[in-house]
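note to self: dont lose this again. the chain is below, predicted strucutre after it. 119 aa total, dont forget to put it in the shared folder this time
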Amino acid sequence: MILENYFPVLLFVLIGLAVGVVFPFLGRILGPGRPDAAKNSPYECGFGAFEDARMKFDVRYYLIAILFILFDLETAFFFPWGVAMRDLGLAGYVTMLVFIAEFVVGFWYIWKKGALDWE
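---
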């Protein structure tokens, strides 16, 4: 019967819906409900806005964010290499050494250019 093949999927969906509905409901019922003016304010930092909402951010903020994403993605390549290292052999090892060398040279370059300095 075809329903037997889809039973695990149906069970997964039902458990996901139960978790998505039951836990927030229990949190609302059992959690403390004493909001004050600070909790209801739209500012997450605890104090009101003091400038225009359309103020420009410093370019260094975006540069640091882009560099973080770049190096985060590059380090994500280390995990599959580490898992498959025995199967890759010497060619995979040398290729990864070249990748690590490029990684270190790129990091050294942005460090020396002062891209990581916030001041």
